[in-house]
Amino acid sequence: MLDVSFFTPSTPPPLHPSTPLPFHPSTLPPFHLSTPQPFHPMHLLTPEATEMREKITAMLESGDEPQTLLALQLLKGGGVHASHLTHVLALSRWNNLHWEDKTTIRMQAKLLFNKYAPQDMIAKQKQHKLLTQRELDKRINDVERGFMAYIEEYAQQTGVEASILAVMGLLTLKRGAMYLLHTQARPAGWVLRNMLKNDMQTNLVFRSFQLKQLPTEIGDFPQVRHLDFMGNPLEDVPNSLQNLTQVNSLAFDYDKISPLVLEKLMRFFPVVMSNIFFSHGTTAKRKAGASIYPKPNPHPAYLEAIPHFEKGVVCRPNYAELWHNIGACWVFYGEPTKALPALHNARDLYAQRLRDKHTNTGHNIFWLSCVHALLGEKEQGLAYLTELAKTKEWYYLSLALKEEDWAMYHKDQDFLAICNSL
Q1: Which of 246, 268, 290 is at the close of a domain?
Q2: Of the four, 50, 79, 86, 421, which is 20 to 30 A from 206 by CA?
Q3: What phi-psi label fits residue 278: left (phi over 0), alpha (psi between -120 and 50 degrees) or beta?
Protein backbone atom coordinates (compact mmCIF):
# COMPACT_ATOMS: atom_id res chain seq x y z
CA MET A 1 0.00 0.00 0.00
CA LEU A 2 1.33 3.47 -0.93
CA ASP A 3 2.30 5.64 2.08
CA VAL A 4 0.76 9.09 1.58
CA SER A 5 1.33 10.45 5.08
CA PHE A 6 3.99 12.95 3.88
CA PHE A 7 1.75 14.53 1.28
CA THR A 8 0.09 17.90 1.84
CA PRO A 9 -2.80 19.26 -0.20
CA SER A 10 -0.46 21.69 -1.98
CA THR A 11 2.32 19.15 -2.59
CA PRO A 12 1.97 17.14 -5.80
CA PRO A 13 2.87 13.43 -5.63
CA PRO A 14 6.40 12.56 -6.75
CA LEU A 15 6.93 11.31 -10.27
CA HIS A 16 7.52 7.63 -10.80
CA PRO A 17 11.11 6.94 -11.88
CA SER A 18 9.88 5.67 -15.22
CA THR A 19 7.79 8.79 -15.90
CA PRO A 20 9.48 11.01 -18.52
CA LEU A 21 10.34 14.62 -17.49
CA PRO A 22 8.11 17.30 -19.07
CA PHE A 23 11.29 19.23 -20.13
CA HIS A 24 14.81 18.40 -21.22
CA PRO A 25 17.66 19.49 -18.85
CA SER A 26 19.37 21.27 -21.74
CA THR A 27 16.44 23.69 -21.95
CA LEU A 28 17.10 25.05 -18.41
CA PRO A 29 18.86 28.45 -18.12
CA PRO A 30 22.47 28.17 -17.00
CA PHE A 31 22.94 28.32 -13.23
CA HIS A 32 25.96 30.15 -11.82
CA LEU A 33 26.86 29.72 -8.17
CA SER A 34 27.76 33.21 -6.87
CA THR A 35 30.99 33.42 -4.92
CA PRO A 36 30.27 34.69 -1.36
CA GLN A 37 32.07 37.88 -0.42
CA PRO A 38 34.49 37.26 2.45
CA PHE A 39 33.75 39.17 5.71
CA HIS A 40 36.15 42.08 6.07
CA PRO A 41 37.47 42.05 9.66
CA MET A 42 38.30 45.76 9.39
CA HIS A 43 34.98 46.76 7.84
CA LEU A 44 34.76 50.05 9.84
CA LEU A 45 37.89 51.26 8.08
CA THR A 46 36.38 51.01 4.61
CA PRO A 47 35.03 54.13 2.82
CA GLU A 48 31.54 52.59 2.76
CA ALA A 49 31.34 52.57 6.57
CA THR A 50 31.01 56.34 7.00
CA GLU A 51 27.47 56.18 8.34
CA MET A 52 28.36 53.46 10.83
CA ARG A 53 31.39 55.40 12.03
CA GLU A 54 29.17 58.42 12.67
CA LYS A 55 26.85 56.28 14.77
CA ILE A 56 29.79 54.98 16.78
CA THR A 57 31.00 58.56 17.30
CA ALA A 58 27.59 59.44 18.73
CA MET A 59 27.78 56.43 21.05
CA LEU A 60 31.26 57.36 22.26
CA GLU A 61 30.12 60.94 22.87
CA SER A 62 26.90 59.98 24.64
CA GLY A 63 28.43 59.82 28.10
CA ASP A 64 26.36 56.68 28.66
CA GLU A 65 28.22 53.66 30.01
CA PRO A 66 26.34 50.89 28.08
CA GLN A 67 26.60 52.90 24.85
CA THR A 68 30.32 53.41 25.40
CA LEU A 69 30.89 49.70 26.05
CA LEU A 70 28.93 48.76 22.92
CA ALA A 71 30.92 51.24 20.83
CA LEU A 72 34.20 49.73 22.06
CA GLN A 73 32.95 46.23 21.16
CA LEU A 74 32.06 47.42 17.65
CA LEU A 75 35.49 49.00 17.27
CA LYS A 76 37.10 45.80 18.48
CA GLY A 77 35.37 43.85 15.72
CA GLY A 78 35.53 46.42 12.95
CA GLY A 79 38.73 48.38 13.56
CA VAL A 80 39.45 51.83 14.93
CA HIS A 81 39.31 54.58 12.33
CA ALA A 82 41.56 57.63 12.68
CA SER A 83 38.50 59.69 13.66
CA HIS A 84 38.06 57.52 16.77
CA LEU A 85 41.65 57.35 17.99
CA THR A 86 41.30 60.42 20.22
CA HIS A 87 38.09 59.05 21.75
CA VAL A 88 39.81 55.77 22.54
CA LEU A 89 42.90 57.47 23.94
CA ALA A 90 40.78 59.65 26.24
CA LEU A 91 38.81 56.65 27.50
CA SER A 92 42.05 54.82 28.26
CA ARG A 93 42.97 57.60 30.71
CA TRP A 94 39.69 59.23 31.77
CA ASN A 95 36.53 57.60 33.12
CA ASN A 96 33.27 58.92 34.44
CA LEU A 97 33.22 58.42 38.21
CA HIS A 98 29.62 57.18 38.03
CA TRP A 99 30.43 54.34 35.64
CA GLU A 100 30.38 50.93 37.28
CA ASP A 101 32.68 49.14 34.81
CA LYS A 102 35.39 51.80 34.57
CA THR A 103 38.25 49.27 34.53
CA THR A 104 36.85 47.31 31.57
CA ILE A 105 36.32 50.48 29.55
CA ARG A 106 39.80 51.73 30.32
CA MET A 107 41.51 48.42 29.46
CA GLN A 108 39.55 47.88 26.22
CA ALA A 109 40.27 51.44 25.11
CA LYS A 110 43.98 51.06 25.89
CA LEU A 111 44.23 47.82 23.86
CA LEU A 112 42.42 49.36 20.91
CA PHE A 113 44.62 52.45 20.90
CA ASN A 114 47.84 50.42 21.05
CA LYS A 115 46.60 48.14 18.26
CA TYR A 116 45.35 50.71 15.75
CA ALA A 117 47.17 53.97 16.45
CA PRO A 118 50.16 54.79 14.20
CA GLN A 119 53.51 54.05 15.77
CA ASP A 120 54.54 57.70 15.77
CA MET A 121 51.36 58.64 17.67
CA ILE A 122 51.98 55.89 20.20
CA ALA A 123 55.55 57.07 20.64
CA LYS A 124 54.41 60.69 21.17
CA GLN A 125 51.76 59.57 23.60
CA LYS A 126 54.35 57.69 25.65
CA GLN A 127 56.57 60.75 25.65
CA HIS A 128 53.71 63.12 26.57
CA LYS A 129 51.34 60.90 28.51
CA LEU A 130 47.78 62.16 28.81
CA LEU A 131 47.27 63.30 32.40
CA THR A 132 44.73 61.40 34.50
CA GLN A 133 42.04 63.18 36.48
CA ARG A 134 44.11 63.05 39.67
CA GLU A 135 47.15 64.49 37.89
CA LEU A 136 45.04 67.24 36.32
CA ASP A 137 43.62 68.19 39.71
CA LYS A 138 47.14 68.52 41.11
CA ARG A 139 48.64 70.52 38.22
CA ILE A 140 45.76 72.71 37.05
CA ASN A 141 44.19 75.11 39.51
CA ASP A 142 41.84 76.86 37.09
CA VAL A 143 39.56 74.01 36.05
CA GLU A 144 38.39 75.31 32.67
CA ARG A 145 41.04 77.78 31.49
CA GLY A 146 43.86 75.49 32.61
CA PHE A 147 42.26 72.47 30.93
CA MET A 148 41.72 74.43 27.71
CA ALA A 149 45.40 75.40 27.57
CA TYR A 150 46.46 71.85 28.41
CA ILE A 151 44.48 70.04 25.69
CA GLU A 152 45.57 72.58 23.06
CA GLU A 153 49.21 72.01 23.98
CA TYR A 154 48.76 68.25 24.18
CA ALA A 155 47.10 68.13 20.74
CA GLN A 156 50.08 69.97 19.22
CA GLN A 157 52.52 67.57 20.88
CA THR A 158 50.81 64.30 19.95
CA GLY A 159 48.63 64.96 16.89
CA VAL A 160 45.29 64.12 18.53
CA GLU A 161 42.21 66.32 18.16
CA ALA A 162 41.81 68.93 20.90
CA SER A 163 38.06 69.29 20.26
CA ILE A 164 37.48 65.57 20.87
CA LEU A 165 39.60 65.72 24.03
CA ALA A 166 37.37 68.58 25.19
CA VAL A 167 34.24 66.53 24.43
CA MET A 168 35.52 63.49 26.30
CA GLY A 169 36.77 65.71 29.12
CA LEU A 170 33.29 67.20 29.53
CA LEU A 171 31.71 63.74 29.58
CA THR A 172 34.17 62.17 32.00
CA LEU A 173 36.01 64.88 33.96
CA LYS A 174 33.42 67.70 33.90
CA ARG A 175 36.03 69.82 32.09
CA GLY A 176 36.06 71.11 28.52
CA ALA A 177 32.88 73.17 28.21
CA MET A 178 34.84 76.43 27.97
CA TYR A 179 36.89 75.14 25.01
CA LEU A 180 33.78 73.87 23.20
CA LEU A 181 31.85 77.12 23.67
CA HIS A 182 34.79 79.26 22.52
CA THR A 183 35.61 77.14 19.47
CA GLN A 184 32.01 76.10 18.70
CA ALA A 185 33.35 72.60 18.05
CA ARG A 186 30.00 71.20 19.20
CA PRO A 187 26.51 72.75 19.18
CA ALA A 188 25.99 74.99 22.19
CA GLY A 189 22.82 73.11 23.13
CA TRP A 190 24.77 69.84 23.35
CA VAL A 191 27.43 71.48 25.54
CA LEU A 192 24.88 73.06 27.90
CA ARG A 193 22.94 69.81 28.19
CA ASN A 194 26.06 67.93 29.26
CA MET A 195 27.07 70.72 31.64
CA LEU A 196 23.71 70.23 33.35
CA LYS A 197 24.18 66.45 33.47
CA ASN A 198 27.41 67.03 35.32
CA ASP A 199 25.94 69.44 37.85
CA MET A 200 22.67 68.27 39.40
CA GLN A 201 20.61 69.05 36.25
CA THR A 202 19.76 72.50 37.67
CA ASN A 203 23.09 74.39 37.86
CA LEU A 204 24.81 76.10 34.93
CA VAL A 205 28.28 77.22 35.97
CA PHE A 206 30.30 79.34 33.54
CA ARG A 207 32.89 80.38 36.13
CA SER A 208 35.99 81.92 34.51
CA PHE A 209 34.91 80.92 30.99
CA GLN A 210 35.89 84.40 29.71
CA LEU A 211 32.68 84.63 27.68
CA LYS A 212 31.50 87.94 26.24
CA GLN A 213 28.10 86.53 25.31
CA LEU A 214 26.01 83.56 26.39
CA PRO A 215 24.61 81.12 23.81
CA THR A 216 21.00 81.68 22.82
CA GLU A 217 20.30 78.00 23.53
CA ILE A 218 20.51 78.70 27.27
CA GLY A 219 16.80 79.50 27.12
CA ASP A 220 16.05 75.88 26.20
CA PHE A 221 16.70 74.71 29.76
CA PRO A 222 13.94 76.18 31.97
CA GLN A 223 14.80 73.77 34.80
CA VAL A 224 17.92 75.78 35.66
CA ARG A 225 17.87 77.20 39.20
CA HIS A 226 21.43 78.49 39.64
CA LEU A 227 23.50 80.56 37.19
CA ASP A 228 27.16 81.37 37.77
CA PHE A 229 28.75 84.00 35.49
CA MET A 230 31.72 84.81 37.72
CA GLY A 231 34.86 85.60 35.75
CA ASN A 232 33.05 86.45 32.48
CA PRO A 233 33.27 89.94 30.91
CA LEU A 234 29.73 89.68 29.56
CA GLU A 235 28.74 92.39 27.10
CA ASP A 236 25.27 91.01 26.43
CA VAL A 237 22.97 88.12 27.31
CA PRO A 238 20.27 86.64 25.04
CA ASN A 239 16.63 87.50 25.64
CA SER A 240 15.96 83.76 25.87
CA LEU A 241 17.53 83.95 29.34
CA GLN A 242 14.19 85.17 30.68
CA ASN A 243 12.79 81.69 29.95
CA LEU A 244 14.63 80.45 33.05
CA THR A 245 11.78 81.29 35.40
CA GLN A 246 12.98 78.97 38.17
CA VAL A 247 16.32 80.71 38.75
CA ASN A 248 16.70 81.53 42.44
CA SER A 249 20.44 82.14 42.60
CA LEU A 250 22.81 84.25 40.49
CA ALA A 251 26.55 84.86 40.71
CA PHE A 252 28.36 87.49 38.64
CA ASP A 253 31.05 90.18 38.86
CA TYR A 254 29.78 93.76 39.07
CA ASP A 255 33.01 95.11 37.66
CA LYS A 256 33.10 92.75 34.65
CA ILE A 257 29.60 92.74 33.21
CA SER A 258 28.33 95.60 31.06
CA PRO A 259 25.51 97.98 32.14
CA LEU A 260 23.33 96.32 29.48
CA VAL A 261 23.79 92.90 31.08
CA LEU A 262 23.03 94.31 34.54
CA GLU A 263 19.86 95.96 33.24
CA LYS A 264 18.69 92.72 31.63
CA LEU A 265 19.38 90.67 34.74
CA MET A 266 17.37 93.17 36.79
CA ARG A 267 14.50 92.86 34.32
CA PHE A 268 14.59 89.08 33.90
CA PHE A 269 15.17 88.15 37.57
CA PRO A 270 13.81 91.03 39.71
CA VAL A 271 13.38 89.09 42.97
CA VAL A 272 16.79 87.41 42.80
CA MET A 273 18.52 90.64 41.85
CA SER A 274 16.81 92.64 44.61
CA ASN A 275 18.10 90.10 47.13
CA ILE A 276 21.60 90.40 45.67
CA PHE A 277 21.50 94.20 45.89
CA PHE A 278 20.22 93.98 49.46
CA SER A 279 23.12 91.67 50.36
CA HIS A 280 25.70 93.94 48.73
CA GLY A 281 24.22 97.01 50.38
CA THR A 282 24.24 95.36 53.79
CA THR A 283 27.87 94.32 53.33
CA ALA A 284 28.87 97.88 52.40
CA LYS A 285 26.88 99.30 55.31
CA ARG A 286 28.71 97.08 57.79
CA LYS A 287 32.00 98.70 56.85
CA ALA A 288 30.90 101.58 59.06
CA GLY A 289 31.39 99.25 61.98
CA ALA A 290 28.90 97.47 64.18
CA SER A 291 28.12 99.71 67.11
CA ILE A 292 25.20 100.40 69.42
CA TYR A 293 25.87 104.08 69.10
CA PRO A 294 26.14 105.95 65.78
CA LYS A 295 29.55 107.15 64.71
CA PRO A 296 30.35 110.72 65.73
CA ASN A 297 31.47 111.49 62.16
CA PRO A 298 29.55 110.44 59.01
CA HIS A 299 31.06 107.26 57.61
CA PRO A 300 31.45 106.97 53.79
CA ALA A 301 30.33 103.34 53.93
CA TYR A 302 26.74 104.54 54.25
CA LEU A 303 27.01 106.45 50.97
CA GLU A 304 28.57 103.36 49.38
CA ALA A 305 25.63 101.20 50.49
CA ILE A 306 22.81 103.48 49.32
CA PRO A 307 23.21 102.84 45.52
CA HIS A 308 22.95 99.08 46.08
CA PHE A 309 19.68 99.46 47.97
CA GLU A 310 18.37 101.90 45.34
CA LYS A 311 19.05 99.40 42.55
CA GLY A 312 17.18 96.80 44.58
CA VAL A 313 14.19 99.14 44.80
CA VAL A 314 14.17 99.45 41.00
CA CYS A 315 13.80 95.66 40.79
CA ARG A 316 11.29 95.37 43.61
CA PRO A 317 9.57 98.62 44.62
CA ASN A 318 7.44 96.95 47.32
CA TYR A 319 10.40 95.50 49.24
CA ALA A 320 10.14 97.34 52.58
CA GLU A 321 13.58 96.30 53.82
CA LEU A 322 15.29 98.08 50.91
CA TRP A 323 13.51 101.38 51.61
CA HIS A 324 14.22 100.93 55.31
CA ASN A 325 17.97 100.60 54.73
CA ILE A 326 18.11 103.58 52.37
CA GLY A 327 16.52 105.72 55.07
CA ALA A 328 18.74 104.30 57.81
CA CYS A 329 21.90 105.04 55.81
CA TRP A 330 20.89 108.69 55.35
CA VAL A 331 20.08 109.03 59.05
CA PHE A 332 23.40 107.53 60.12
CA TYR A 333 25.25 109.64 57.59
CA GLY A 334 23.80 112.70 59.26
CA GLU A 335 21.22 113.79 56.68
CA PRO A 336 17.84 112.75 58.14
CA THR A 337 15.90 114.98 55.76
CA LYS A 338 16.99 112.88 52.78
CA ALA A 339 15.88 109.80 54.69
CA LEU A 340 12.23 110.82 55.02
CA PRO A 341 10.83 109.59 51.65
CA ALA A 342 12.47 106.18 52.02
CA LEU A 343 11.43 105.78 55.67
CA HIS A 344 7.84 106.75 54.89
CA ASN A 345 7.71 104.13 52.13
CA ALA A 346 9.15 101.50 54.49
CA ARG A 347 6.64 102.42 57.21
CA ASP A 348 3.69 102.12 54.82
CA LEU A 349 4.88 98.80 53.37
CA TYR A 350 5.45 97.22 56.80
CA ALA A 351 2.02 98.45 57.94
CA GLN A 352 0.43 97.03 54.78
CA ARG A 353 1.94 93.63 55.55
CA LEU A 354 0.37 93.71 59.01
CA ARG A 355 -3.01 94.63 57.55
CA ASP A 356 -2.69 91.78 55.06
CA LYS A 357 -1.85 89.44 57.96
CA HIS A 358 1.50 88.70 56.43
CA THR A 359 3.34 85.71 57.86
CA ASN A 360 6.19 86.41 60.27
CA THR A 361 4.24 89.10 62.11
CA GLY A 362 6.93 89.62 64.74
CA HIS A 363 9.46 90.49 62.04
CA ASN A 364 7.24 93.20 60.55
CA ILE A 365 6.24 94.68 63.91
CA PHE A 366 9.86 94.91 65.05
CA TRP A 367 11.17 96.59 61.90
CA LEU A 368 8.18 98.92 61.85
CA SER A 369 9.17 99.98 65.36
CA CYS A 370 12.72 100.60 64.07
CA VAL A 371 11.42 102.85 61.28
CA HIS A 372 9.51 104.94 63.83
CA ALA A 373 12.67 105.16 65.95
CA LEU A 374 14.64 106.46 62.95
CA LEU A 375 11.89 109.00 62.28
CA GLY A 376 12.20 110.19 65.88
CA GLU A 377 8.68 108.93 66.65
CA LYS A 378 9.49 107.41 70.02
CA GLU A 379 5.96 106.78 71.27
CA GLN A 380 4.84 104.92 68.15
CA GLY A 381 8.01 102.83 68.15
CA LEU A 382 7.63 101.90 71.82
CA ALA A 383 3.99 100.97 71.21
CA TYR A 384 5.08 98.33 68.71
CA LEU A 385 7.76 97.06 71.13
CA THR A 386 5.07 96.76 73.80
CA GLU A 387 3.00 94.69 71.37
CA LEU A 388 5.99 92.38 70.91
CA ALA A 389 6.29 92.05 74.69
CA LYS A 390 2.61 91.11 74.99
CA THR A 391 3.01 88.36 72.40
CA LYS A 392 6.23 87.23 74.10
CA GLU A 393 8.45 87.88 71.08
CA TRP A 394 11.54 87.79 73.26
CA TYR A 395 13.97 87.45 70.38
CA TYR A 396 13.01 90.82 68.90
CA LEU A 397 13.07 92.58 72.27
CA SER A 398 16.62 91.37 72.88
CA LEU A 399 17.52 92.41 69.34
CA ALA A 400 16.25 95.94 70.01
CA LEU A 401 18.93 96.33 72.69
CA LYS A 402 21.59 95.81 69.98
CA GLU A 403 19.91 97.28 66.92
CA GLU A 404 21.50 100.46 65.59
CA ASP A 405 18.11 101.86 64.57
CA TRP A 406 17.21 102.14 68.27
CA ALA A 407 20.68 103.39 69.29
CA MET A 408 19.54 106.88 70.27
CA TYR A 409 17.14 105.33 72.81
CA HIS A 410 19.41 102.69 74.29
CA LYS A 411 19.63 104.69 77.57
CA ASP A 412 16.00 105.73 77.56
CA GLN A 413 14.22 104.41 80.66
CA ASP A 414 10.91 103.72 78.90
CA PHE A 415 12.73 101.76 76.17
CA LEU A 416 14.74 99.77 78.72
CA ALA A 417 11.66 98.99 80.80
CA ILE A 418 9.96 97.36 77.81
CA CYS A 419 13.00 95.45 76.57
CA ASN A 420 13.97 94.25 80.05
CA SER A 421 10.45 93.01 80.73
CA LEU A 422 11.57 89.70 79.34
Answers
A1: 268
A2: 86
A3: alpha
Number of structural domains in the chain: 2
- 154 and 129 within one domain: yes
Do 99 and 199 belong to one domain?
Answer: no
pLDDT of residue 3: 47
Do residues 105 and 58 both lie within one domain?
Answer: yes
Structural domain span for residue 146: 50-183
Considering only 30-34, 88-92, 163-167, 372-376, which range has the smallest mean pLDDT? 30-34
pLDDT digits (tens, 9 = 90+) for 53-68: 999 999 999 999 999 9
Residues in Cβ contact with 302 at an 8 Å cutoff, skipping those fewer than 6 apart: 285, 288, 329, 330, 332, 333
Q: Please, which pLDDT band fits residue 367 given cuts at 50, 70 and 90?
A: very high
Residue among 127, 113, 62 at smallest CA distance from 84: 113
Domain annotation covers residue 151 = yes
Domain final position from 268, 298, 316: 268
How far, in Å, CA of 348 to CA of 353, rounded? 9
Structure-model confidence comparison of residues 38 and 343, the more confident one: 343
pTM: 0.81
What is the distance between the alpha carbons of residues 192 and 195, in angstroms, rounded to a whole number?
A: 5
Output DSSP code: residue 213.
B
